[in-house]
Every structure is written in structure tokens, then in C-alpha cells.
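Thread: Modeling a multi-component assembly for a lab meeting

Hi all, long-time lurker, first post. My supervisor asked me to bring a structural picture of a complex we are working on to next week's group meeting, and I have zero experience with this. I have the sequence lines for every component (427 residues in total). Could someone generate the structure of the whole assembly? Inputs are pasted exactly as I received them:
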Amino acid sequence: MTGAATHWHAPRSLREALDLREDYGDETVVVAGGTFLGVLINNGVLAPEAMLSLRDVPELRRIEIGRELTLGAMVTHREVENHPEVRRLWPALAHMFSLVASPRIRNRATVGGVLADADYASDPPSMLAALGARVVLEGPRGRRELPVEDFILGLYETAIGSDELLTSVVVPGGHEAAVYRKFRTRSHEDRPCVSVAAARHSGRLRVVVGAAAMQPQFFPDVCGMGASPREIADEYAGRIDALSDARGSAEYRRRVVAVEVRRAIEETHHG
Amino acid sequence: MNCTLHLNGTETALGVDGKDMLLNVLRDEVGLTSVRGTCGIGLCGTCTVIVDGQTTASCILPVGLADGKEVTTIEGVPSDDPVKVAFEKANAFQCGYCTPGMILTARAFLDENPDPTDDEIAEALAGNICRCGCYVKIADAVRLAAGMLRDEKVAA
Ligand SMILES: Cc1cc2nc3c(=O)[nH]c(=O)nc-3n(C[C@H](O)[C@H](O)[C@H](O)COP(=O)(O)OP(=O)(O)OC[C@H]3O[C@@H](n4cnc5c(N)ncnc54)[C@H](O)[C@@H]3O)c2cc1C
Ligand code: FES
Ligand code: FES
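Re: Modeling a multi-component assembly
Sure thing. I ran the full set together rather than chain by chain. Output:
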């Protein structure tokens, strides 16, 4: 079926997982829910010689709720979307996770996996960036936190070091409003053509556009202009270097950005 | 690696490569050809199995992630199960190719949501494709099954 047998590491604690990661680095492929890697392996794009499964690391499965929300890297999309307290206190976040793929994929796909794969057409990065979330990375040099927009460096490229693991995501609370709009052009359970996340915190607006370019698009200076929703939307549409793919051409995407950004900001005013 | 699946209630020990997909292991090693590979990218739902109570695309699940888990295929659903009976009663198939995945998806869904609305049924099944286009009857079957399951509860 496949070539040589894969070394399968299944650590049972975070300490053990971090030690293995430090010892083996990127040669050993970290696997979380497997939905992204499974597609690559099943289609012959990737044939790992060794894998490091985070499935049995209990520390990565926590959901902690306080002033901020901490989602362990191995928390699944489904767990976030169905968590009563998350739905009550971070409704836009829970709603956004419920819009990803189908239940069958959300049952497995993890919060850490979707951030670490850094696919341009994923839903969670833009919403998390709009909420001001921070990614927590741990490795031999200790623990560090990065805002989501600084963590994603480009297409499939993140700030995770070859000796680090993404261990959690921390989402601030207390937003006056938060909105997620997913614009699809094909089937209901498809990835977005354009997604817009908008959030207000302490009177400050953050608008992040996903899936339109190689990485989430956030222009703090535009959000801080105090301009009308339409002006902000037009500025986003003008600045984004949109890409073309099967879900829409660059020109089409810019048009959609202008409409969807305006609608998202308007929605933050209504509730 | 040595991998143990609690497969349809039977402990099944297998010598596998952890990165082989559960779909291929179930078909080629165990002989369960009701689990069907089609798109191979998690989209269509014909390879759906239930792993620890949750539907999963077996075509993209490295079997190492299923080690020690309960895995249910259509063979593990009793023939008098209300969802199976409802699919028959509602004639919710033509060729039957998508049916195992549909029934397993409906089964897991009704466990979570015993009294679904039509929209919730459509949402739950949106990731399962029926090439024969039996969607209307499939939705009928799920509604029928939901009613039968509720009646069973009342009777019990
Ligand atoms: C059919 C289908 C439809 C989809 N539709 C959507 C959609 O509509 N919207 C959307 O946003 N996404 C969509 N996705 C993508 C899906 O959400 C991602 O595949 C998933 O979130 C990845 O998570 P995972 O846990 O399965 O990751 P894995 O496949 O296990 O890993 C993904 C990558 O992250 C690395 N990694 C994982 N965890 C860590 C960690 N803790 N530390 C360091 N590295 C790590 C892995 O090495 C790998 O490179 C879809 C996927 C499929 C198959
Ligand atoms: S074959 Fe697995 S979802 Fe299509
Ligand atoms: S009955 Fe033929 S594919 Fe659904």
C-alpha cells in the first residue's frame, strides 16, 4: 500500500510531546485531527516517514473560560461550536466554527490544525484575528504568544519553529460586537471565496478579510479612520491584492470584498 | 504499528502502517466493502464511519488516529434499527451506493438531535452526496426515523 512503515509517536503528556518535537523536528510530521494531512497523504502529496500524534495529550484538549477564552490546540471545531459558554460569550466565534466544512470534518478538525496549516481559504484565521486572538507556541526556549495576524506568514507558512508546538489560542472577551460573514460561491459546505470578520472592542474596530489573498488581510489604519462602513469597505477592496482561483477571480473577489466588508461593519452597529 | 479497533463491537487487532487510511484498512484488511472510497478528500461522505460516536471521513483518517477507538460501520447497525428501517420504508435510495454513509450520518445526528427541524436535517446531511439524487426521500427517512426513535423512548 505504502512504502516503509511510518514511525508513529503517540506521547501521553505535553512534556513528552515537546521533547519528541525537539528531538525530531520537522522530519517527524505533527498530526492533530488529520483532516488536512489525510488529504495530502491519501493523494500521494506527502509520505511521512514518522508522525507525532497529539491525540493523547490531555493538556491540549482544554477549554478554559475566564475574562479570556483559551482553546487548547486539540480542541475540535465541533467542541467549540457546541460549547454552551462559548456560544453565550463568544457567539460569533462559535457560529464561525459551525460554518466550516461538514459535521464529519468538524468532528476531527482542530483549532491548532487549522491555524498551523495556514491555508488561505480557511475560516477561523480571520475571525480569530478580528477578535484579537493570540497563538501560544511552546518549545525548548519556553513559551511565546503571537497575534494571529503575525503568526500566519504566508500561504502554508507560519511562525512555528521546527522545535515548537502550537499549544493553544487565547481569545480576549468583552467585545461590544463581533460578526462573521462567509461568502461561498460553490456548495454549502465549501471553503469561503471571501470571508469577513469584524469586531469592536473598547470602541475600536478590527476588520479582517480572509480567503481573498494569501493570508488574512487587516489594515488597522483604515479601521481607525473613523470613516463610514462604505468608505472602509472601498479602501479594503482597493488595497487587497486579491487572488484568483476556482472560487472566484481577483476582480470578482474585490467586488465581493467591497460589499461584504460594508455589510459586516453595518452588522456590528446592529448588535 | 499494532493497532486495535473496537470494530462493530469486536476487538480487532491489526498490523498496519499508522499513515494508511482507515478506509483502506477496513476494506482491504478487514473486508468491509460497505465503506466506500470515492472522492478521497473528505467531501462526499460515502466513506463515513462512526468513531467514538462521531462521524468521520475514513478516506482521510490515518488509522493510527483510530487506534483503541470504537469504530462502527453499517454492519454494526442492527437490521431492526429505526434508521435502517426508515430508509427502507421511505425508499430512500436507488443504487444504494451512498446509503451506508447516509444511514451512519443520520444515526449519529439523531443521537445528538432527536427532534430536528427540516433545516437541521438538510444541514446535517449536506456533506453526503447522493449521485442518484434521492435527497427528498432521504430527508423523509430521517424524519420518519426521528419519529420512530421518539416513540421507542416513550414506550420504554
Ligand atoms: C472536505 C473538507 C472541507 C473543508 N472545508 C473547510 C472550510 O469550509 N473552512 C475551513 O476553514 N477549513 C475547511 N477545511 C480545512 C479543515 O478545517 C482543516 O483541514 C483542519 O482544520 C485542519 O485541522 P486538523 O486538526 O485536521 O489538522 P492536521 O491535518 O492534523 O494538521 C494540519 C497541519 O498542522 C500541523 N499541526 C497540527 N497541529 C499542530 C500543533 N498543535 N502544533 C504544530 N503543528 C501542528 C500539521 O503538521 C499539519 O501540517 C476543509 C477540509 C476538508 C477535508
Ligand atoms: S471518499 Fe471519503 S469523503 Fe469522499
Ligand atoms: S442512492 Fe445512488 S448514490 Fe445515493
